[in-house]
């Protein structure tokens, strides 16, 4: 017997609440009254290809589902990480597939295939925000006061911090592990910048090598426009008990300003003979393209340096020819004068050294000496 739909029935209220009616027809009797008549066939709302069955008729719902899949339409990504990343797609078998992601801040490309996980992307984005001072309130930019009383925005940059750490280590001859020490981290974070990130000694080693190559390339490019240079050279020893030959260039730049640049500090772990000194100096000049731009060399008065000049003069005569000047170091000459004077005063100096050693050998003697001075 046909049943009529009653709008006042309980099923009517249940259907509006999204609950299946409790009678045996599962609400089919009232569906037409709520949503209108059911069409005989699905309504085609797309313009894609349709699947045709064996009788030449459209395949109905199956064709519609296939159409959506065959168009290769990508679903919109809902993860918040894509607010900080750009998706990179490639076409594989006619379908666009996500293969990578590009960070908005560092422009680095990371793996992000559709078939793989993306858990590493938010971690990378968070680190980039910390480095660039983006996001939280404590990561906002700060004000910096210049010497001329102007105020500018200051942003913490991890790259700048790492470069300055390399300069500090090189200038003070600090160990490479200095940047990862707990004491240094506490000092920087408490006294200067709470956003400081420690750097391992392996990273510092790579940073120093990279910084050296960059500065070397800049100096080589700058010296290309220099017409002539004057050189000074000497041998130094470091804390590691190794000897190094320094080569320094003095020249006048395009603004008529005198500049001094260290060209190299070359290890000389062999005899300090004239041939070894000349070989290292000529190698450094060849690397910078200065072999034909030298008009004078200043060395100390050691006999090996005079021997080195006999080898260097024919090699460096391209700019001034036989007029190449070999200057004697004035500071070294003054040092020889002072040593000669100390030879005359040596007996008195020995007496002073004996007295100082006698006092420093006992705390009681030092205390007695101080009490004597107060009398």
From TrEMBL:
| GO CC annotation terms, alphabetical | nucleus
The positions making up the signal sequence are none
Please note every region of biased composition (Low complexity). 60-70
Where does it mainly reside? Answer: nucleus
Keywords of the record, alphabetical order, are: Metal-binding, Nucleus, Transcription, Transcription regulation, Zinc, Zinc-finger
Query: Which intervals hold domain BED-type?
Result: 76-139
Cite the residue spans of the region called Disordered. Answer: 1-80
**What name has this protein been given in UniProt?**
BED-type domain-containing protein
């Amino acid at each position: 017997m046909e049943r009529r739909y009653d709008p006042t029935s309980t099923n009517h209220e249940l259907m509006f609440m999204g609950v299946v009616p409790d009678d045996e027809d599962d609400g089919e009797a009232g569906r037409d009254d709520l949503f209108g008549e059911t069409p005989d066939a699905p309504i085609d709302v797309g313009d894609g290809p349709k699947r045709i069955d064996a009788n030449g008729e459209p395949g109905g719902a199956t064709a519609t589902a296939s159409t959506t899949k065959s168009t290769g339409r990508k679903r919109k990504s809902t993860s918040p990480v894509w607010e900080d990343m750009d998706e990179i797609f490639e076409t594989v078998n006619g379908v666009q597939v996500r293969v990578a992601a590009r960070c908005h801040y560092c422009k680095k490309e990371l793996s992000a295939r559709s078939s793989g996980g993306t858990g590493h992307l938010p971690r990378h984005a968070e680190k980039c925000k910390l480095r660039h001072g983006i996001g939280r309130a404590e990561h906002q930019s700060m004000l910096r006061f210049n010497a001329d009383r102007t105020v500018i925005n200051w942003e913490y940059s991890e790259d700048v911090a790492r470069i300055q750490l390399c300069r500090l280590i090189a200038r003070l001859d600090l160990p490479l592990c200095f940047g990862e020490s707990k004491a240094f981290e506490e000092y920087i974070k408490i006294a200067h910048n709470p956003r400081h990130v420690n750097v391992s000694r392996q990273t510092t080693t790579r940073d120093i090598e990279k910084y050296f190559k960059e500065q070397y390339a800049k100096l080589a490019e700058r010296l290309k426009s220099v017409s002539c240079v004057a050189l000074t050279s000497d041998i130094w020893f470091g804390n590691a008990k190794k000897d190094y030959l320094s080569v320094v260039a003095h020249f006048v730049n395009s603004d008529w300003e005198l500049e001094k640049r260290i060209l190299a500090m070359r290890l000389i772990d062999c005899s300090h003979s004239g041939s070894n000194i000349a070989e290292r100096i000529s190698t450094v000049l060849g690397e910078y393209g200065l072999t034909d731009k030298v008009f004078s060399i200043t060395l100390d008065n050691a006999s090996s340096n005079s021997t080195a000049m006999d080898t260097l003069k024919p090699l460096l005569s391209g700019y001034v020819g036989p007029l190449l000047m070999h200057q004697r170091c004035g500071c070294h000459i003054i040092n020889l004068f002072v040593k000669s004077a100390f030879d005359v005063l040596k007996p008195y100096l020995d007496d002073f050294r004996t007295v100082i050693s006698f006092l420093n050998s006992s705390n009681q003697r030092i205390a007695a000496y101080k009490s004597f001075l107060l009398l």
